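Give me the fold.
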Amino acid sequence: MRKPVQLSREAREELLDAAGRYGAERAELKQQFLVAVDDALERVARYASHLAAITRPNESPVVKRVLMARFPYAVYFLELPRTLRVIAVAHEKREPRYWLSRR
């Protein structure tokens, strides 16, 4: 059974901010970005337990990620007992690992 995927407030804000920036360039880019986010969240829901941790195994909680297709973003999440908690929708080239404090 799949666990529900929940976005933190910060992750939701990051998603909306990035979508807005892409939309300011071209409306269809915003739509394509949102489709890529949906796809990444579906992969989180489907494959969470099979994805490798990106933090050290002794660090708790363990953070995992899914890279987004076509866009330089990743979805970072925690696999909790009852949910999959998205802690960041982060650009991969800006401020690496800023989201670590959200664990």
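The radius of gyration is 13 Å.
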